[in-house]
């Protein structure tokens, strides 16, 4: 597959730093032909690509790791995909404390937890884990807002990056062809004040047979930080109809105002999209999300990892100006039949109506 951008000649200093990270990968039995490359020594574009794989089973989710040079703090400021929808169904980039395995590639499908030992999640068990980037359907390059970056490496819990590629159809690999789908990571070593973070809202729960269920969660922001939301991503499996996220704030009359952050049909490509409202989120606000899931099966469906299960996720990408991102990384509720926004103990009022079209 043709690369979209050329690679500049690596500078000697960066190369030295690279050797450290390449050696530490070799120590762990991993091999990477990639390395940080840069013209100036402080910014560059790192090709994070599949190491010429030839997947043979349809619907394979393959993961490949890189260890970030632990002696340097990097800020990822943009993502330039090297993939086409003919080959890759979707790609996700994870920031991890530990990778799921020490192999150079492994099977990391959502069903990973459910089946054989040959599989593992993108990030290690109990490891720090967050999604930094998502690609589907020939999506174009994305840049974070000016001056904003994801901090990785030395001064960050993100010690590894893991690329997941979903190969839906594998006919084109029958003849032994290989693939290097992935993403060029635009990065800088110049310290940035504005740090990007993701917060994941989701639910557990059960959807009764032949019923449309509303899966809801909400959390108060209690940390004294100002969050500037800029992108969101939704995720469900095949029965998802709508996913919406809101910022809830009481006005001077004590009435809760629900401002929509994003709302999407989850069966459209599950990438990050611009939020519909970029006003800051403050301490004392609540963040809330709702998935409408229509169970057309004659049996109950639970939240779980396989296609026989459902999921309900709303990822919010935000930045903070000065200081660190939220300690709170997740906002999960028990979901139905136990948790609804309308429960008396949630403190939520003035709840948005459910549209008739999704009932
Ligand atoms: C049970 C559930 O909702 N799983 C989601 C969310 C999730 C993402 C990450 C949970 C954890 C994580 O570390 I990152 I714990 C889930 O698996 N979502 C899928 C991916 O498999 C991550 C998605 O595409 O959003
Ligand atoms: Cu996919
Ligand atoms: Cu899922």
TrEMBL record:
Cofactor note: Binds 2 Cu(2+) ions per subunit.
Cell compartment(s), UniProt: Secreted
MF-aspect GO terms: copper ion binding; peptidylglycine monooxygenase activity
Name the UniProt record assigns to this protein: peptidylglycine monooxygenase
Catalytic activity annotation: a [peptide]-C-terminal glycine + 2 L-ascorbate + O2 = a [peptide]-C-terminal (2S)-2-hydroxyglycine + 2 monodehydro-L-ascorbate radical + H2O
Organism in which the protein naturally occurs: Drosophila persimilis
Needed cofactors: Cu(2+)
Gene designation per UniProt: Dper\GL10437
EC number: 1.14.17.3
Enzyme class: oxidoreductase
Transmembrane segments: 6-26
Alphabetical UniProt keywords: Copper, Disulfide bond, Glycoprotein, Membrane, Metal-binding, Monooxygenase, Oxidoreductase, Secreted, Signal, Transmembrane, Transmembrane helix
């Amino acid at each position: 597959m043709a690369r979209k951008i050329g690679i500049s000649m690596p500078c000697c200093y960066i190369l030295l730093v690279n050797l450290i990270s390449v050696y530490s990968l070799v120590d762990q039995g991993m091999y990477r032909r990639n390395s940080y490359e840069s013209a100036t020594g402080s910014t560059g574009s790192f090709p994070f690509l599949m190491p010429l794989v030839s997947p043979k089973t349809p619907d394979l989710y393959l993961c490949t790791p890189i260890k970030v040079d632990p002696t340097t703090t990097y800020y990822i400021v943009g993502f330039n995909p090297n993939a086409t929808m003919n080959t890759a169904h979707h790609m996700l980039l994870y920031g991890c404390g530990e990778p799921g395995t020490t192999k150079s590639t492994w099977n990391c499908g959502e069903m990973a937890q459910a089946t054989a030992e040959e599989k593992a999640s993108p990030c290690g068990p109990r490891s720090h884990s967050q999604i930094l980037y998502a690609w589907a359907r020939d999506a174009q390059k994305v840049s974070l807002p000016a001056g904003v970056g994801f901090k990785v490496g030395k001064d960050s819990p993100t010690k590894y990056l893991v690329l997941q590629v979903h190969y839906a159809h594998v006919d084109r690999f029958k003849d032994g062809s290989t693939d290097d789908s992935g993403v060029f990571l635009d990065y800088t070593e110049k310290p940035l004040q504005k740090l990007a973070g993701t917060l994941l809202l989701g639910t557990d729960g059960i959807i009764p047979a032949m019923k449309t269920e509303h899966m809801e969660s909400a959390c108060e922001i209690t940390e004294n930080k100002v969050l500037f939301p800029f992108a969101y991503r939704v995720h469900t499996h095949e029965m998802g109809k709508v996913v919406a996220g809101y910022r809830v704030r009481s006005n001077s009359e004590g009435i809760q105002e629900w401002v929509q952050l994003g709302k999407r049909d989850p069966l459209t490509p599950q990438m990050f999209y611009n939020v519909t409202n970029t006003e800051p989120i403050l301490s004392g606000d609540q963040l809330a999300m709702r998935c409408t899931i229509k169970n057309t099966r004659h049996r109950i469906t639970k939240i779980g990892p396989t296609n026989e299960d459902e999921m309900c996720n709303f990822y919010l990408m935000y930045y903070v100006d000065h200081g660190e991102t939220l300690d709170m990384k997740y906002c999960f509720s028990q979901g139905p039949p136990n948790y609804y926004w309308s429960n008396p103990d949630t403190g939520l009022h003035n709840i948005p109506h459910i549209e008739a079209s999704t009932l």
